[in-house]
What does this fold into?
Amino acid sequence: MATAAALLIDFGSTYTKLRAIDLDRRRILGSGQGPSTVTSDIMLGMNAALADLEKRLGSLPKFKYRLACSSAAGGLRMVTVGLVRELTAEAARRAALGAGAKLVGTFAYRLTQGDVERIVALAPDILLLAGGTDGGNSEVVLHNAAALGRSRLACPFIFAGNRNAADDSMTVLGAREVIRTENVMPEFNVLNIEPARAVIRQVFIDRIVHAKGIYRAQEAFDQVLMPTPAAVLDGVKLLADGCRGAPGLGPLLVIDPGGATTDVHSVATGEPSVAGVIPQGLPEPRVKRTVEGDLGMRHNVAAVVEAAGLEAIAKDAQLTPARVTGLVDAIARDLERLPQSGEEIALDQALVRAAVKLAVARHCGTVATVYTATGPVTVQHGKDLTNVGAVIGTGGALVHSRDPLGVMEMSLAVSSEPLSLRPKHPKLLLDRDYLLYACGLLGAVEPEAALELALAYLEPIEGEESSRERTLTA
Amino acid sequence: MKVLVTGVIGSDTHIVGNRILSMALEKAGYKVVTLGALTPAGEFIKAAVETNADAIMVSSLYGQGELDCRGFRDLCVEAGLDDILLYVGGNLVVGKQPWSEVEERFLAMGFDRAAPPGTRIEAVIEWLARDFAARERGLRRAEA
It folds into this structure.
């Protein structure tokens, strides 16, 4: 009897990746991979990947679903504009990141002529315009709409600013495509990014997929649902929350160190875990994605060394600083090079450890003590993730590491940095089969199967504590 | 509707009076953006910019108000809020100092009104009404 199968496609920037899933038995039938050929003819890479899959399976099953996500052709490149940097500009940034976008520029306050020229040069796929609470400042968002309206920028716009300024903004933005949605910050310090996030995804499906030439592979799949980072984020959310009749893992953190950036996702309220701590600043979204643009193992290798410190990297890799500098230069000259020698492997491990540590520290919140007349008070900025139940590692840099535990443990809280609210005792799980994107895509049609599949394939990595316990009982 | 930003400045946790004031102002027909306790000066200004506020009302109860409020008007000017109405109130200084001197000091710092301890909420609401009316006539604030 033929089993129901699903084909999940990721049109990446380097590879076209396929996962064939047995929907009844909830297991991976096989994987296929081809080059990324979006810039020429996307079907070349797709056919190569399908041939690879067919070779492994013997024959291709009839697929009930063929769903795709894409980060090809530069991903979903977005520019966001807001008013105050820490308020509506930050809310707009979070909306874009949560929709799986690659942020190529973020602007605040009044756009200058130079800013507008920079935005035109960045040539984003979508521009998200925010600014002002509803009934609040309308002057700046109007100024910015007018400045952008006069420019040559032809991409779709999303207006998510002060609703009282929406009509006038639409007028000055002129004949271009503008979609109006709810304000990302309708009231002071109230975050409302879901509507903007949904509109970004819709524009991606309706417009961007076509503009990037992905539609040429249309006979090979049913639909491109979302940008790849959004698929990963949806997969992460499903894993945390579960679905009807199937519980998830609960609050969790995901680390994804990559060649150009290190992404961190969390699904958790992030409220203070200790009584009496006062949260400050913008409220945090429960489902949050941050992208560290300076922490990439290949494209930003020098920046990782700079952020972590040459001495620290050298010590961790057990190399001399001079040797590290030499190897880093070699990586910068040849980004495609994979580590071969013992030294190169040691350096790669030190780099990914440093990137994960920095990225998680930036994603998680911090506490600080403020001394008041009535005694010390603890205030919290950002999310408290000390009690998340699981940390999941994904991405090539982690999966191909010889010591994934050594990388994943860098996401944990350490006693020497008590002010950083990183996870304390989570389960560590490795996404060895690169399933999170597939889980997110499949979750759109069959959430229970997607959840069960991901839970079955995430591989527990033993932490120090459990290995210590094992030694004691042995 | 006029928008007011309220909060307790600096490392000061005394929130109760400020909360009562905020509720009364709301009842009096204002839109109130409440920042609560432990609010740095810069946060008042950021909130006022984003919400296009008409006035900022700073509370301070722990005696350090003079230090916390230093340069507050300058920060407003820097953010383009040159003419925003600024009130301050509470136990603004340490020790027993004549109120007239304290008031003079805060007015010199650029506040439009300073309220001593024990000021009734009704008095503040009346100030606001008169000052907003005076602004309609092009004045900085009402006479007294």
